[in-house]
Write a structure and sequence with these properties.
There is one protein chain. The protein is α/β, with parallel strands linked by helices. It has two domains: about 220 residues, Vaccinia Virus protein VP39 (Rossmann fold); about 80 residues, no CATH class. Helices cover about 30% and strands about 20% of the residues. It contains eight helices and 15 strands. It has a nine-stranded mixed sheet. A two-stranded antiparallel sheet has the order 1-2. Helix 5 packs antiparallel against helix 8. The longest helix is centred in the middle third of the chain and has 19 residues. The radius of gyration is 21 Å and the shape is globular. The two termini are about 20 Å apart. The structure holds S-adenosylmethionine (SAM) and zinc ion (ZN).
């Protein structure tokens, strides 16, 4: 099922017939020795989340989001008794609910840190990882043999890679004939919340963000977006045999406090335009800002919440 990182022949974990034993760090198979991120040079570029790690999950560490639970049912049903590859699985927002459904999963990401967070979340949520193979892999060169898996999801990652076509080719290669590449997008659901509901939330977030970059720019530090545009629909329609869509209905209202969503991520340098901000400059600036904002908006300003309504989820299934 896997490809040996040394001799490139197919193998089962942990030992290849060439004599190589795949290292396992804390339950994570090290199937790639590619860097955590490649931000410059002539090779394909990508942004692994090793540096972002902790700051990514927010309060998700202790919950499965409703949306993820709904999507997971669909993926588990599509996968049946087969294998689901959660490519660039991050903190496991889909791996974990699918594991709960009893699905067999390969959860792969370039970041050991993110995979470690997935493990902590599984522990917090009392979810067994017995059916989950955790591995450090590069989506540009998936160490899985041809025609091995039944479903693949690569959620929120294609835009972080400069050569997404190569990733799609890899996904197509590892899928069994008839297997499904599942893409998830927001579909308009209920009316979005009234803008009045979130007036204060937006004011604080925008002010924080603008002030942050204003102070950093004075030191010559600028936001850098690592993200590449890509016409997925066009590329997939050329690669896959068929395409179907379904809408997963998701109604209801949610609230996310600044302290549960935006703030921990912002303070932890968890947004991709913050990836190149030096830690010290970040800490000095955010300490200043927090003091200033507590003065302006009150000590507990971080309990201001964003009130939103879920949107339906558009699931596109491309079949090999
Ligand atoms: C925005 S997160 C999405 C995580 C998860 N799929 C989700 O939907 O929440 C992007 C993930 O892609 C991973 N990543 C980036 N480049 C990668 C690559 N070349 N190979 C594997 N994973 C990669 C990052 O480490 C990060 O965990
Ligand atoms: Zn080998």
């Amino acid at each position: 099922m896997f490809i040996c990182p040394k001799c490139r022949n197919s193998m089962t974990l942990p030992n290849c017939s060439c004599g190589y034993a795949v290292p396992n760090f804390d339950g994570i198979w090290q199937l790639s020795d590619a860097p955590d991120a490649v931000k410059s040079g002539d090779d394909d570029l990508y942004i692994g989340y090793e540096e972002i790690g902790e700051a990514y999950s927010g309060n998700r560490k202790y919950i499965i989001e409703e949306t993820d639970g709904l999507v997971a049912w669909e993926i588990s049903e599509l996968t049946g008794k087969g294998v689901f590859l959660d490519l660039a699985c991050g903190d496991g927002c889909l791996t974990l609910p699918c594991a709960q459904n009893g699905t067999k999963i390969i959860a792969g990401d370039i970041s050991n840190k993110m995979l470690g967070i997935l493990k902590v979340r599984a522990h917090n949520l009392n979810i067994s990882l017995d059916n989950v193979t955790l591995c450090r892999i590069n989506a540009l060169n998936i160490p899985i043999a041809d025609e091995s898996v039944d479903t693949v999801v690569a959620n929120s990652v294609l835009h972080l890679i400069s050569n997404p076509q190569k990733v799609l080719d890899e996904i197509h290669r590892v899928l069994k004939t008839g297997g499904a590449f599942v893409c998830l997008d927001d579909a308009p659901g209920e009316q979005n919340s009234d803008s009045d509901d979130n007036f204060l939330y937006y004011e604080i977030v925008n002010n924080l963000y603008n002030k942050y970059w204003e102070l950093l720019e004075r030191q010559g530090i600028y936001p850098k977006k690592y993200s590449w545009k890509f016409d997925r629909e066009d590329a997939c329609s050329r690669l896959f045999a068929s395409r179907e869509t379904r809408v997963i209905r998701h109604r209801g209202r949610y609230e996310t406090k600044l302290s549960d969503g935006f703030l921990p991520r912002f303070l932890g340098r968890g947004f991709s335009d913050q990836t190149d901000v030096p830690k010290e400059a970040h800490e000095v600036v955010t300490e200043l800002l927090m003091k200033d904002f507590r003065g302006r908006y009150g000590e507990d300003f971080d309990s201001v919440a964003y009130i939103g309504r879920y949107s339906d989820i558009l699931m596109t299934v491309y079949r090999k």
